[in-house]
Design a protein that fits this description.
The complex is a heterotrimer of chains A (291), B (246) and C (289).
Chain A: H1 2-17, E1 26-30, H2 33-43, E2 47-51, H3 66-74, E3 77-80, H4 89-96, E4 101-104, E5 113-114, E6 117-118, H5 126-143, H6 148-174, E7 182-185, H7 191-197, E8 200-202, H8 215-228, E9 232-236, H9 242-251, E10 254-259, H10 274-289
Parallel strand pairs in A: 1-2, 1-3, 3-4, 7-8, 7-9, 9-10
Antiparallel strand pairs in A: 5-6
Chain B: E1 3-14, E2 17-28, E3 32-36, H1 43-51, E4 58-62, E5 71-74, H2 88-93, H3 97-100, H4 110-119, H5 135-149, E6 153-157, H6 165-180, E7 184-188, H7 192-198, E8 201-206, E9 208-214, H8 215-218, H9 221-230
Parallel strand pairs in B: 3-7, 3-8, 5-6, 6-7
Antiparallel strand pairs in B: 1-2, 1-4, 8-9
Chain C: H1 2-12, H2 14-39, H3 45-52, H4 54-64, H5 68-92, H6 97-118, H7 125-129, H8 138-167, H9 169-175, H10 179-201, H11 203-217, H12 224-249, H13 253-271
Helix pairs in contact in C: 1-2, 2-8, 2-10, 2-11, 2-12, 3-6, 4-5, 4-6, 5-6, 5-10, 8-9, 8-10, 10-11, 11-12, 11-13, 12-13
Classes of the chains: A alpha/beta (291), B alpha/beta (246), C mainly alpha (289).
Amino acid sequence: MQRVGWRFAAAVAMLVAGPGHAQQKVDIAASTTVLADLARNVGGDHVNVVSLVGPNGDIHSYVPSPADAKNLADAKLVILNGLGLEGSTAQFMRIAAKGAKVLVASDGITPLRLGNSPDPHAWQSVANAKTYVANIRDALIAVDPADRSVFEANAAAYLRRLDALDAEVKAAIATIPPQRRKLVTTHDAFGYLGTAYGVEFIAPHGVSTEAEASARDVAQIIAQIRAQKIPAVFLENVADPRLLERIARESGARIGGTLCSDALTDANGPAPTYVEMMRHNVKELVGALAG
Amino acid sequence: MNAQLQFRDLTLGYDRHPAVHHLNGAIASGALVAVVGPNGAGKSTLFKGIVGLLTPLAGRIELAGLKRRDIAYLPQVADIDRSFPINVYDMVAMGLWRSTGLLGGVRGKSAEIHHAIEAVGLTGFEDRPIGTLSGGQMQRVLFARLLLQDARLIVLDEPFNAVDAKTVADLCALVQRWHGEERTVIAALHDLDLVRANFPEALLLARAPVAWGATAEVLTPGNLLKARQMCEAFDPEAHECHIDVA
Amino acid sequence: MPYDVLIAPFAEFDFMRRALVGTLALALGAGPIGVILMLRRMSLMGDAMAHAILPGAAVGFLVAGLNLFAMSAGGLVAGLLVAVLAGVVARATELKEDASLAAFFLVSLALGVTIVSARGTNIDLLHFLFGNVLGLDTATLMLIAAISTLSLLVLALIWRPLVLECVDPGFLRSISRAGAPVHIAFLGLVVLNLVGGFQALGTLLAVGLMMVPAVTARFWARDISTMLAVAVGVGVLSGYVGLLLSFHAGVAAGPAIILVAGALCLGSVLIGPVGGVVRPLFPKQHLEA
């Protein structure tokens, strides 16, 4: 029934506006792969989603291309994370988006702080991801009211999956002895994950992957790992892993697997979707810390 | 005559324009030859051809078994980085290349090196950086290096330019010494009195040879006038040369 | 107290010892190369080469993914290619070496950016390729040590024609055909030290430890042998003091080392006995002869 109504509406739109509006799907441009995945889950086959930064890519070293500008100009809905994640790229996206609706997906979330600025990696807590999904749903409905019920149904189903995921993560973390729920990683991206699930993340770098660690930073981390008996250090998929390996070796901590922070992997990697990313990260955490 | 150098219809030049045109002749082993001519006569070009820095446009030079390292060459304007931190001793020692090769040490040869420095009158200057030398002193250093090169053919392009009379006399004595050791020496010079006093043989060049033989017979007023008139002949629109070589 | 400040950081932390050894090895090999580059007026070559290696690193990435060995090998090939092409063109034509190098490295850089963006990835390849002196593993240390050793051996082998080529290229050409091969071998050493240094220590440190001590040495020596010794000494001292600075003051390690070298350089410009600025202001009575 719904399909018929939608087709009717599309046909009317074609008659009214001519062939330029013949597209059946809503074009969405998102800044990162995480946002793109959430939008796909809400939009289903009624949307086309592109991500400016590709799989494994680092938003911090993103350089806009003309193709990106075209994707943004063609989009009906542009999704940013906000909280400063996109940096100056946010400005580029707003300008290139022309007439599209611009959604800041993290709206309504109370951010953690990283020094003087907000920590942008809010999606690392499943509860926050649910806020993202609700924001995306509402934005999609605003852009394409005819498909309201589709978007509402998709979002409801996906939110139930996220609830299950949240419970799964909590259950997994519970298997780690409380005194072992701490680790070191290169990227200061897991503040929300740590706060939501009670794991302490300690980072040798600042919030940006561009900052270079000093010998004092490294020495302090090693001393801290030794003193607090931190069981593991983790690599993640965007920054230089060699420094971390050195810290692990020297402090006696175990080297965990790779945690995904800013970007999903491609289809061959362990984390092609948001749900799989969270599962992957938790599996790595439990594997390294529980032992 | 035992020819050390043989020019056969030799034409040398740049971008097809000849600077030395159809030169024939020979230089005997052990000869002491002055090459004389106005500016632009092709003296430096001829020397570059002899030492192999310039490929002939036509004709050839036969070197009678001389290898590259048997020839010592002093260019008119040496391409030397005077600011390079090297002292007189090390600079002179480079002349030993022929006997030491790429890796051989010069430690056992220090007597030879000091001797060469003494022969050019620079004893006491061994540790001076070359950047602190006067023009005449630098020329003495280069002559000391030539001494150590122990070459059978020595080619000197205007070796006494901007050098005082005392230095000229000292360096001329070295040239005479090489002549006495039966080395072949060719030098481009513009001081005709110096040529008459020191060089038994002369080649008067003005793109083409004007006269070649005993110095007194070559450097006549008539020949010199002729050389002056022949010289300036660069023509950007010149036709191809078709002189028949028998 | 002096022990706590000067020695304890190295005694207590393995990564500090490794950083020190890596820096010393690099200073040993790169210092003499820097002196020659400076004397040949090619002091900016290091920076040019940092860009020239990009397409090689990108091709290595396309072939093998984020694999340090493949990307370094690719970078080495691209760097050598650019250096050798620039050297050959400078010798075969009227073009000066700096001009030919400028043309080739810019083309190389453009090619690298094209390859990277055609692949559609935003991963900063060079950022990955450029290592951190604090994160040296054993394999990388061995690599730096091997490059240093090789550099010193090859320099010893080609030293005489190399110096001759700098001071009197015309003379070298008149007595030997070794000029071109020696020049190419030297360029190869430059690229090897840079690429090795990049992935071990980062661009700034690799180029900085090559050039800044060399420039400093110019103010302390009139002959090239002393200059080499001073350059190596300045490199070693900068490495040691820079790491201490990074340890005690919390400054990033690579920049700290180069800043110390820079301070030594500035001091030498002022008070260096050979051509320093201050000395002529306090003239001594001249000598008799």
